[in-house]
Amino acid sequence: MEASSLPAALELAAGGGAGLSPEKRAALGSSLLLLQRDYRFERVWFWGCIQGVRGAYYIAEGLGPDRAAHRSRLYSLNCVEWSLLPPATEEMVRQAEQLKGRFQGDPSFEYEYTEINAEDAERLFEDGKEPVIKEEARLVATIEQIDRAVGIIPRGAFVKTPLGSVHENRNFEGLSLTEAKKLSSYFHFTEPVNLKNKTLLEKADLDPSTDFLDSLEHDIPQGKGS
Questions:
Q1: Residue 76 in 3-state DSSP?
Q2: Quick one: which of 180, 222, 226, 212 has its CA closest to 66?
Q3: Is the Cβ–Cβ distance between 151 and 189 less than 8 Å?
Q4: pLDDT over 60 at 115, yes or no
Q5: Is the dihedral of CA 120, 58, 148, 62 positive or negative?
Q6: Whether the predicted pLDDT of 17 surpasses 70
Q7: Are 75 and 58 in contact (CB under 8 A)?
Q8: CA separation (Å) from 33 to 38, 57, 109?
Q9: Which GO terms describe its biological process (predicted)?
Q10: What is the mean pLDDT of residues 21-47?
Q11: Which pLDDT does position 176 carry in this prediction?
Q12: Is 73 helix (H, G, I), strand (E, B) or coil?
């Protein structure tokens, strides 16, 4: 949700029973605009909320002119004061996958090495590092995993310029009913992986200005029901 339209968007989301209190909505509406000004972001999106045992993390993303470039992520415990999160690394993601259970709601909380994969713990010992994971690192990794899995945009909503930057398509008015039913009409809004493996013949039918991301067409659901 974009900061400028956040109050109206949260009102709509509240109908599903997963809304925020009027106090939180009011605080977000003003603090996100200040966040955009202070960090000089071109746009600010409210990413969502991760509920912990003793509190919740409210997540925001700051964007620059290139919408596909790295997004700065911030979190708040009270919807007023914001802290910048470090970029996610593959090591963070790998270690976070070993952790189970709910978040505590305390960024400084440390998960003991007994909860970490034995191989990772041994490597940390060899590097002279404490075999612990702070909850802040787990938060960073969890946001990254969610974005990779369900960060999705419709085809045509963003366009790639000849110089390589990505912008919103101001002429996009939504998908037609026919196109909206196709998985190929939706893209993962992350760094493409499968697209790089396509042959030149397969790429010949793609429009480089709109088809520059991995589509959902060949996704295989994971889990017991797949």
A1: strand
A2: 212
A3: yes
A4: no
A5: negative
A6: no
A7: yes
A8: 9, 18, 29
A9: axoneme assembly; cilium movement involved in cell motility; motile cilium assembly
A10: 91
A11: 94
A12: strand
Q: Is 179 left (phi over 0), alpha (psi -120 to 50) or beta?
A: alpha
d(Cα 146, Cα 103) in Å, to the nearest integer? 15
| Percentage of residues of the chain with pLDDT beyond 70 | 84
Chain-centre distance of CA 112, in angstroms? 26
pLDDT for the residue numbered 19: 72
Count of residues for the chain? 226
pLDDT of residue 123: 63
- Distance, CA of 153 to CA of 151 (rounded, Å): 7
pLDDT reported for residue 119 = 63
- Distance, in Å, from the CA atom of 153 to the CA atom of 156, rounded to the nearest integer, reads 9
224: pLDDT strictly greater than 70: no
Q: Which residue is listed with tokens 């002279």?
A: 128
Give Cα 177 distance to the centre of its chain. Answer: 27
Helical spans, DSSP H, in 151-224: 177-180, 200-203
199's torsion region: left (phi>0), alpha (psi -120 to 50) or beta?
A: beta
Q: What is the pLDDT of residues 83-108, one digit of tens each?
A: 999 999 998 998 888 888 899 999 99
What whole-number distance in Å separates Cα of residue 23 and Cα of residue 223? 38
Query: Sign of torsion, CA 162 165 168 173?
Result: positive
The rounded distance, in Å, linking the Cα atoms of 171 and 155 is 12
**CA of 82: how far to CAs of 8, 85, 86, 87, 115, in Å?**
22, 10, 13, 16, 29
Does residue 116 register a pLDDT over 60? no
Neighbouring-strand partners of residue 110 = 134
